[in-house]
Amino acid sequence: MAISHVQPLLLLIGSLFFLPALRAVSFEYCNASGYDFGNVTDVEISPNPIGPNDFELSITVLGFASKSIDSGSVEVHARSENITDLLRRDAFAIEAGTSFVLPLPEVPLDILEGDFKYVVSVLDKDVGDSKEPIVRICVDFDLPISAPTLVVSA
Ligand SMILES: *[C@@H]1O[C@H](CO)[C@@H](O)[C@H](O)[C@H]1NC(C)=O
Ligand SMILES: *[C@@H]1O[C@H](CO)[C@@H](O)[C@H](O)[C@H]1NC(C)=O
Ligand SMILES: *[C@@H]1O[C@H](CO)[C@@H](O)[C@H](O)[C@H]1NC(C)=O
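Above: the input record for the complex with 2-acetamido-2-deoxy-beta-D-glucopyranose. Below: its predicted structure, written as tokens.
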């Protein structure tokens, strides 16, 4: 009896300890050098790896904003050489000097032909005369897809 209670607890502790490290993916800034707006410290994906039966994923982006955004948005795209698909867009606002956690659940799995990346960008609409929102910060990363899911291109 005692043992059957201990094991689930150990499993829980084990997964709390191991999951965060497994879920983080390596990312790059879209403009290579980083942004005045702030920084991104971590990008986490769940499930990780993405298996053959998964059709959506959750992305969490953590970072720090040196500047504020009053009226912005967060967009998730899948982008390959010739295709850019918008997968999710959320409203976003932040105060300067604060850290942020962007939870982006239920992002569709969108496997494009050839090399492709998922891209998370923070856009600011409140930029004076400009009609187009401008990109304040942007990261891209490869999806951690488990080997059997790899699509053979026709
Ligand atoms: C990246 O964006 C920042 C502004 O946020 C700019 O200062 C920097 O030059 C950009 N880097 C490239 C390679 O365009
Ligand atoms: C992000 O920016 C904050 C505030 O400037 C800084 O303390 C932190 O070290 C930066 N982290 C990275 C990974 O650049
Ligand atoms: C993208 O388009 C160009 C020009 O049409 C083509 O040569 C190239 O093969 C395409 N790339 C992919 C990955 O389909």
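Notes for the reader.
Residues 39, 41, 64, 66 surround 2-acetamido-2-deoxy-beta-D-glucopyranose (ligand 2) (CB under 6 Å).
The mean pLDDT is 86.
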